């Protein structure tokens, strides 16, 4: 009957979307989340590759078929390694790139959300001169558009690269 056919069709659709069909890799929620992560990584890697002078990019990989994680791929060695093996400066660049990639995707996904201001607190002290310069170039290019980038830092060398500064000093009154 028509009711049985409709039930069978709806049940089949439900099982496919929930990942309960043999050979179906994942439920619809996981699929959407992974797709969103892929988009964030694409946006993040544009910055991470530039900040690392073309050396690194972030990639997803399967973890024992239980989910996905991030690895960092080295263009120099041609191998992927765990993100936790990055140095302090490399970790900062990866985290900054991911934050910028996520901001790109949030803004692209909703016309109602406009992220015009971003504050970055510390992390620059862990970068060598070249890496700091590369990171600053990426941020200056963003600030040259429609974004205001605020950097909170104690790194003296960073002051030389910033045109506009708000310097907070401590005196006997606080």
Helix and strand string, N-terminal first? HHEEEHEHEH
Biggest pleated sheet? 3 strands, antiparallel
Number of helices: 5
Helix share, percent: 40-55%
Which oligomerization state do the chains in this entry correspond to?
A: single chain
Rg over CA atoms, rounded to whole Å, is 22 Å
**Average pLDDT taken over every residue:** 80
Instruction: Tell me the strand percentage band.
Output: 15-25%
Structural class: alpha+beta
Strand order across the biggest sheet? 1-2-3
Task: Count the beta strands.
Answer: 5
First-last Cα distance: 81 Å
Q: Which stretches are low in confidence, meaning pLDDT under 50 for 5 or more residues running?
A: none
Outline = elongated
Summarize the structure.
The chain is α+β, with helices and mostly antiparallel strands and 174 residues long. It has helices spanning 2-17, 28-51, 88-109, 129-144, 156-159; strands at 56-63, 67-74, 80-82, 117-121, 148-152.
Helix-strand layout with pairing:
Elements: H1 2-17, H2 28-51, E1 56-63, E2 67-74, E3 80-82, H3 88-109, E4 117-121, H4 129-144, E5 148-152, H5 156-159
Parallel strand pairs: 4-5
Antiparallel strand pairs: 1-2, 2-3
Helix pairs in contact: 2-3
């Amino acid at each position: 009957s028509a009711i049985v056919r409709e039930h069978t069709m709806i049940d089949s659709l439900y099982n496919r979307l929930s990942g309960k069909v043999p050979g179906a890799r994942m439920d619809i929620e996981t699929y959407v989340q992974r797709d969103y992560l892929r988009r964030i990584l694409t946006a993040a890697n544009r910055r991470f590759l530039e900040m690392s002078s073309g050396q690194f990019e972030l990639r997803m990989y399967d973890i024992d078929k239980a989910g996905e994680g991030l690895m960092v791929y080295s263009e120099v060695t041609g191998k992927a390694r765990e993100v936790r093996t990055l140095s302090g400066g490399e970790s900062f660049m990866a985290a900054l790139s991911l934050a910028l990639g996520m901001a790109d995707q949030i803004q692209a996904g909703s016309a109602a959300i406009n992220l015009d201001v971003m504050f970055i607190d510390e992390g620059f002290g862990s970068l060598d001169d070249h890496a700091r310069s590369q990171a600053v170039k990426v941020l200056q290019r963003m600030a040259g558009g429609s974004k205001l980038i605020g950097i909170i830092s104690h790194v003296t060398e960073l002051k030389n690269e910033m045109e506009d500064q708000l310097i907070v000093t401590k005196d006997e009154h606080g």
